[in-house]
Each structure stands twice: as structure tokens, then as C-alpha cells.
Amino acid sequence: AQKITQTQPGMFVQEKEAVTLDCTYDTSDQSYGLFWYKQPSSGEMIFLIYQGSYDEQNATEGRYSLNFQKARKSANLVISASQLGDSAMYFCAMSPPGGSYIPTFGRGTSLIVHP
Amino acid sequence: DVKVTQSSRYLVKRTGEKVFLECVQDMDHENMFWYRQDPGLGLRLIYFSYDVKMKEKGDIPEGYSVSREKKERFSLILESASTNQTSMYLCASSSRRFPLYGYTFGSGTRLTVV
């Protein structure tokens, strides 16, 4: 069975600093995708970044990068130059295992950016 | 550029009412999902559908039903709303052809049952 673990229920960061949100995963599949979503207080889930298991380079999208360490089964999200608008819940997720339709989500990390 | 649309952002209903939450996607996705989200409990899957007229129970289907008569529309039905169904409801869709590419979510419906 797949599993996503986000060990940090809450994180605080100063505006303009970088922050890393941890995500570890477990799967028996060889081919899989890893995702991060942002959920601000308004409730919508916003896709941030995607990493394929066979991608050799870490994914980047603007200020977001995914630190993918396959051997350690970790997929940490790095937000550079934090902004007040980055305050939100962040969810790590994995694509469905073979034969299933349902991705696996972590419990989320609440990030608060201080001015 | 909206791709998954939920009919209401906020909804207040009375106990015992029949409640319909509608979700429409315009991406031709085969799979559609309903989740509820409560503080500290993460996302919990209620029902999903992998094709028209097909439905599968998720982790917490009790008290809910669904309908998928057209590919683009997936409805969640609370047969007799109760206060413990006060929650945030999220609809999502995904493509069977590209299973690695995750979900697209709607903007959510905050339902309050009084």
C-alpha cells in the first residue's frame, strides 16, 4: 500500500526566507508521480509542482522546487523567498498505484509566513 | 480558465434536508471524486467514479450517494443532512490516460447544516 508522511503539522517562516516542507513516501511501484498542492484559507486546492519518478532533474516552478531524493523516498517542497501569501496548508500527494484510480495524500503542513 | 466548477462556495442547509452538491469539469476526464475535509483529519474520500454511471465507495460513504449521468458532471447527494456533515467538500477529476498527472480540484463548497 502507498503512504505519504508529512511530519510537520505546522511551520513558521520569516518573510523573504526559504522554507522546506518535508514529505516522505512509500510505494512498491517503479513508476509514479509526486505532487504538491497549496490550500489557502479560501479552501481551493491549487496544484504547485509535479515530479515524475524517472525525472532526473528536480522539478522547479518559479519559487517552488521539489527536492527529490529517490533512494531516501523523500520529495520535499522548497519555497524560496517566502511571501505573506504563501501562508496556507500544503499537501504532498502521490499518483495512484497501478490498478487504482485514487491518489494518496498526506495530512498536510500548515505554513505561516511572518512579516 | 476554470476547469472544475463546484456550484456553490458556501451553503447552509437545515437538518433533514436533501442536499445536492454539483461538480462539473471541462477537461474530458474519466475519473471524478468527492472528498470531505475536516480539521486534523485531512482529505477523506467519499465516492469516486471512473466512468459514466459507474460509482465506487470511498472511505466514508455513509449518509451520501452520488450520481454521474454525464461524463462532465458528478453530483454528491446528502439524502438527509445532519449536523455532522458540516464540512468542506472538494470535488476533483483526473485523466485515466495520464494517471501520473494527479488531480484538478474545484474551489470547494463549505456546507453548514443547522
Q: Specify the structural class of chain A.
A: mainly beta
The number of E-state strands of chain B comes to 11
- Morphology call of chain A: globular
**What portion of the residues of chain B fall into strands of 2 or more residues?**
over 45%
Stretches of chain B where pLDDT is under 50 for at least 5 consecutive residues are none
Can you count the helices of chain B? 0
Number of strands of chain A: 12
The end-to-end distance of chain A, rounded to whole angstroms, is 41 Å
How would you sum up the major sheet of chain A?
A: 6 strands, mixed
Count of DSSP-assigned helices of chain A: 0
Biggest sheet layout of chain B: 7 strands, mixed
Helix-strand makeup class of chain B: mainly beta
Binned strand content of chain A: over 45%
End-to-end span of chain B in angstroms? 34 Å
Helix content of chain A: under 10%
pLDDT < 50 runs, ≥5 residues of chain A: none
Q: Taking all residues together, what is the mean pLDDT of chain A? A: 93
Helix content of chain B: under 10%
Oligomer: heterodimer
What does this structure look like?
The complex is a heterodimer of chains A (115) and B (114). The relative contact order of chain A is 0.34. Helix content of chain A is 0%, strand content 50%. Chain A has strands at 3-5, 10-14, 19-21, 24-26, 33-39, 46-52, 60-61, 64-69, 74-79, 88-94, 104-105, 109-114. Chain A is globular and about 45 Å long. Chain B has 114 residues and is mainly beta. Chain B contains no helices and 11 strands. In chain B, β7 (64-70) and β8 form a beta hairpin. At the A-B interface, β5 and β6 of A face β5, β9 and β10 of B.
Concise account of the structure shown:
The complex is a heterodimer of chains A (115) and B (114). Chain A has 115 residues and is mainly beta.
What keywords describe this structure?
heterodimer; A: 115 residues; mainly beta; 6-stranded mixed beta sheet; 4-stranded antiparallel beta sheet; 0% helix; B: 114 residues; 7-stranded mixed beta sheet; 11 strands; globular
